[in-house]
Amino acid sequence: MSHLSSPPKKHKGEHKGHSLPHGSERGSSSRDKDRSATVSSSAPMPAGGKGSHPSSTPQRVPNRLIHEKSPYLLQHAYNPVDWYPWGQEAFDKARKENKPIFLSVGYSTCHWCHMMEEESFQNEEIGRLLSEDFVSVKVDREERPDVDKVYMTFVQATSSGGGWPMNVWLTPNLQPFVGGTYFPPEDGLTRVGFRTVLLRIREQWKQNKNTLLENSQRVTTALLARSEISMGDRQLPPSAATMNNRCFQQLDEGYDEEYGGFAEAPKFPTPVILSFLFSYWLSHRLTQDGSRAQQMALHTLKMMANGGIRDHVGQGFHRYSTDCQWHVPHFEKMLYDQAQLAVAYSQAFQISGDEFYSDVAKGILQYVARSLSHRSGGFYSAEDADSPPERGMRPKEGAYYVWTVKEVQQLLPEPVLGATEPLTSGQLLMKHYGLTEAGNISPSQDPKGELQGQNVLTVRYSLELTAARFGLDVEAVRTLLNTGLEKLFQARKHRPKPHLDSKMLAAWNGLMVSGYAVTGAVLGQDRLINYATNGAKFLKRHMFDVASGRLMRTCYTGSGGTVEHSNPPCWGFLEDYAFVVRGLLDLYEASQESAWLEWALRLQDTQDRLFWDSQGGGYFCSEAELGAGLPLRLKDDQDGAEPSANSVSAHNLLRLHGFTGHKDWMDKCVCLLTAFSERMRRVPVALPEMVRALSAQQQTLKQIVICGDRQAKDTKALVQCVHSVYIPNKVLILADGDPSSFLSRQLPFLSTLRRLEDQATAYVCENQACSMPITDPCELRKLLHP
């Protein structure tokens, strides 16, 4: 392998790390230090041309991407590039004309994707090179995660990192031979420019094609062997106790004692890690390590909620922090973060009883309902980091979210009565949230100088300290700050908004159904559970094909708020099934409506049929037919920004076994965990959600049965008691006494459980044995949380 420039420490581009704690996160911010782009290659390449060739003003003539539905592809529809979407037409052209394929992968809220589009893909000369010497293909990684995973595997294996935009050159048979991430348009002192890369590859293809093809085949064969995940000769998965302790120790070593979180900047929320720590605490709560695990998770969640990674004005969380203090974020907002963090903060409230955490969870869901929700119940994908500071201006990262001292003073000039010194509402808010005249963003985090004098709101003091500083009552300060934030929120509405990616993905909608269902159940708020129900109805109405039983991956917002689909439809991937099944199981436990459980079972059957590896165990990420032609068929082996679909599937299989008693699902879960044994043994911290599933499989699942009428007050009281306690390894079953009901047919033992004195009655069952009947919620709580 040779590099076209000296290897940097990391790629510029949205970051994808090799292992947790960073995880497979999106990442490098536009304020990160400049880094040279690296090109990975499977063959040496000769030098190419240099020089600066500014683009002429592009004519607004659309290319064929204008006919696509993806917001990301539509962002490139007016490039002077002969773009193709991923598909047979592009592949046939490459083979017929014997040209390499240039594959460019990104997503619509990716800052560095915007940069490369503006600098290179709008450049007329670069556009001619791409159109004449290559078959250029654009892919939205959120539409085609299978394509993204295959070629990201190549880029990460043959270079020093990975990220988005991802740019890979392929043979006409779709085998990769050169890859990289972001490229500047022209050569710099320490980095190679995109135009130079294109010229070198063009020359190499003409002069040395056979060597390229041979090396490409060799790399592909090596990747196949390296990426194989299989049971092999193993019969059982590893010891859960060993994996748990190793995972905890690895997290403990990387923990930031002062600010929470793991590793150094950039710092990511990683809800999968927090979920693992809570589970670890529960099974080790009488030990020092157990207490520390709880403290690590709670402190991290508190520091994140106080930091600038949280939008204190409009709620919700930004993608990640560019510093270790959670202060200056990369400002995009992703649906999957909101979904998982709502659950994490709800669990923190269950465990601690501190309403600080439940308030954060409610704020997240308030943001999603307001800004990421379709009127028919579905959820949009993301909001961009960039927006124009004022209409007509060039977009800048964070412009929608930052404030100057002058703006705040003008919006909040009212004097605060009773303070020990002259004080306005604006001064109180600026003190509490750390705003300064010079701005609170370090120049090192703003190399382009776009955020000079601007401030990111981040909590600097507790309410008690701020109140004491000015001799005020704590509740008065709370009211003044909330009123001030509401005025900032109303003022912010007049700013140009960031781009909304209104594409709807089944997987992320499944996560969001879980977010609303779990939080609504924990807090006892039917209104939140209704959002989850509407989300599930949306999935069934718009993203499910009744005839085939398959999920669709995507749908889109059409004109007038209608829902549209691509033609042909984009069918679901493993993560779509796994995350939707999880959402439906969470929704059943929150609502006790068995129709959602029935649908979850049917989807699990379809998932098993389409993705299960009957030879090696575990699930492939994509259907065999859908990924036809791709050089690899992968099993995702990392819990990162989102959990691995195999990790989630392991949990789903355990829960479905608990709901139905079907042994096949327990057997599949054991096979899956066995197939991933080597990955867990090697780096358990890369699979914390799967280690959690391993622990659940090797412990005893609780079946908590409530016998009663769903709408009765005494039934609801027992159900709410169960939801108030943190019990990750359980299923909650409502037995309404109807022997013909779905659950009664699945679990015959339910017919033996009776209501006591005609009251709603709870039973806690483990290993085919049930507790004595309980009618008092307080007694039930004692049994569940000794």
UniProtKB/TrEMBL annotation:
Primary location class: secreted
GO CC, alphabetical: extracellular region
Cross-referenced Gene3D superfamilies: 1.50.10.10, Glutaredoxin
InterPro entries given in the database record: 6-hairpin_glycosidase_sf, 6hp_glycosidase-like_sf, Ssp411, Ssp411-like_TRX, Thioredoxin-like_sf
Occurrences of domain Spermatogenesis-associated protein 20-like TRX (ranges): 62-223
Subcellular location: Secreted
Compositionally biased residues, Basic residues: 8-19
Biased composition, class Basic and acidic residues, residue ranges: 23-36
GO biological process per UniProt: carbohydrate metabolic process; cell differentiation; spermatogenesis
One Pfam family from the record: Thioredox_DsbH
Functional summary from the UniProt entry: May play a role in fertility regulation.
Protein name: Spermatogenesis-associated protein 20
